[in-house]
Amino acid sequence: MNFSKTLKTWYSVNKRDLPWRQTTNPYHIWLSEIILQQTQVKQGMPYYEAFLAEFPSVFHLAKASENDVLKLWQGLGYYSRARNLHATAKYVANELQGVFPNTYKELLKLKGIGDYTASAIASICFNEAAAVVDGNVYRVLSRYFGIDTAINSTKGNKEFKLLAQELIDKNDPAIFNQAIMEFGATQCKPQSPDCSLCPFNASCFAFNNNKVASFPLKIKAAKAKKKYFNFLVIESKNEQTLLEKREGKGIWENLYQFPLVETNKDMDFDDFNEIVKNVDLLKNIDYHLSLFNSEAIVHKLSHQHLYSKFWIVKTDASLPNTIAIETVKEYPVPILIGNFIESFYF
């Protein structure tokens, strides 16, 4: 069987009509690939359209403030993608006069662009035979060829990249790359794929050995750590509240949050009330404390699970650095904070 030919034939019939497939503009392709990293098409599509509407060119994105970029990104998670997106836009606009590099090797030098994204842009925009390898590709190749090397290992990364590079259609790399990604996303799905409709079922190792659910193999990740976050939602006189910008490296770098008290366990009212008395922000002032959510909200990240409670602090005292409550929604915040703001009536 000619793997490439079969794959491209399937794609010609089954591909979805997606906006980034109507262009070879590197700005559009780059934007779509960054948004779709660790994000499903259904979730990413509105963000792609919103970014192009707000920033129609790399120059517009470069001129934007980081706050504006992070606010538009709000809800997608993995905010380092947005910060890198902004940094690269400024570099391309200011140092490269708005012209993206046209080779895989040069694209790799840009901040936030790794092997997969560089391969996608190079092949789709510049017809370079650089094979993409993402979660969809790992799944397709491991099942079809019966590869039991862990995909999250250094050996696996090299092995699958070499195989994908051997299989890619050198004359039509753009279509091949898009086809194999689409095949993994819609046909060779992670759970319960319909193998009866698969054009590769006669020669697929996993299907013919009843091992579809066994591929791809992964090294078991370390157990996620639990963290306990307690946010102090200030309601002071004159309808003021307080947001703090997270500084330093971290998952929410440069995003805003309510003042945070981190504890080593889930807190009940009495225990937390004793802790709050010693918080610098609230020393020597009168306030009333209440709990918004009795059950902690669990926010699961890849390496940690956040157990969060929102504590409402009402006071008539004047506090420094407060903002008008009506402006809260203008600030870029993590989705955990954003969901609270939407559900809480100030």
UniProtKB/TrEMBL annotation:
Q: Which SUPFAM superfamilies match?
A: DNA-glycosylase, Nudix
What GO MF terms are annotated? 4 iron, 4 sulfur cluster binding; 8-oxo-7,8-dihydroguanine DNA N-glycosylase activity; adenine/guanine mispair binding; metal ion binding; oxidized purine DNA binding; purine-specific mismatch base pair DNA N-glycosylase activity
Q: Which CDD domains match?
A: ENDO3c (cd00056), NUDIX_DNA_Glycosylase_C-MutY (cd03431)
Annotated GO biological processes are: base-excision repair; mismatch repair
Its name, as the record gives it, is Adenine DNA glycosylase
Indicate the family of this protein.
Answer: Belongs to the Nth/MutY family.
Gene3D superfamilies xrefs: Helix-hairpin-Helix base-excision DNA repair enzymes (C-terminal), Hypothetical protein, domain 2, Nucleoside Triphosphate Pyrophosphohydrolase
Give the matching PANTHER family. Answer: ADENINE DNA GLYCOSYLASE (PTHR42944)
- EC number, UniProt record: 3.2.2.31
Q: Which organism is it from?
A: Siansivirga zeaxanthinifaciens CC-SAMT-1
Q: What does this protein do?
A: Adenine glycosylase active on G-A mispairs. MutY also corrects error-prone DNA synthesis past GO lesions which are due to the oxidatively damaged form of guanine: 7,8-dihydro-8-oxoguanine (8-oxo-dGTP).
